[in-house]
Amino acid sequence: NAGVTQTPKFRILKIGQSMTLQCTQDMNHNYMYWYRQDPGMGLKLIYYSVGAGITDKGEVPNGYNVSRSTTEDFPLRLELAAPSQTSVYFCASSGWEAYGYTFGSGTRLTVV
Amino acid sequence: GENVEQHPSTLSVQEGDSAVIKCTYSDSASNYFPWYKQELGKGPQLIIDIRSNVGEKKDQRIAVTLNKTAKHFSLHITETQPEDSAVYFCAASKGSQGNLIFGKGTKLSVKP
Predict the structure, then answer these.
(1) Which residues pair with A31 in a beta bridge?
(2) CB contact under 8 A, B89 and A50
(3) What does the DSSP 8-state code read for residue B60?
(4) Residue A106 to residues A23, A88, B61, Cα–Cα distance (Å)
(5) B10 touches chain A (CB under 8 A)
(6) Which of B77, B92, B85 is CA-nearest to residue B111?
(7) Which tens digits make up the pLDDT trace of B50-101?
């Protein structure tokens, strides 16, 4: 069982470039989340989804977009990368509301 | 919205000593309080959780206590070992929305 898989693990982007962070889970979880982690700031929720076709904004959605076409996949899109988006991004999933999140191993993104 | 404060931000203990990390939350409607351990370069991993209908929960060397009146909860690690060294996050949610609000983390160092 792979759990939550995130790709890529590392990426350097230039200002203004776009990219998609991939997230896939094989646990048939309905709930999926994207968080960003900045040093000393904990984890901030960017977007979440309660099922295929349903997404909603979290605390810090500006500059990001998501889609949820299948139960398994929840990609995060950065359209115009800015230095403020330099962070570590974590995808997570849960089968029952907030209980028992399973996190991926993260994507470290640097925007220069 | 919910706000979770976590203290201390860093904690250093000798192997075999106990460690206590404290969190307070602001929303009295929160009813689920998990703790996550994050090792270097990895995603957070759920280590223990407690719901609002329980005052204390224990799992081997770790325990969590909840005081709903004071709106605070704590993580207790006894007989600490070097492998307990990591960043620990507390979180809170109202369950139905499935969105965890995280504290800023505590970096625990256990010195052999």
Answers:
(1) A94
(2) no
(3) T
(4) 10, 6, 28
(5) no
(6) B85
(7) 998 889 999 999 999 999 999 999 999 999 999 999 999 999 987 666 588 9
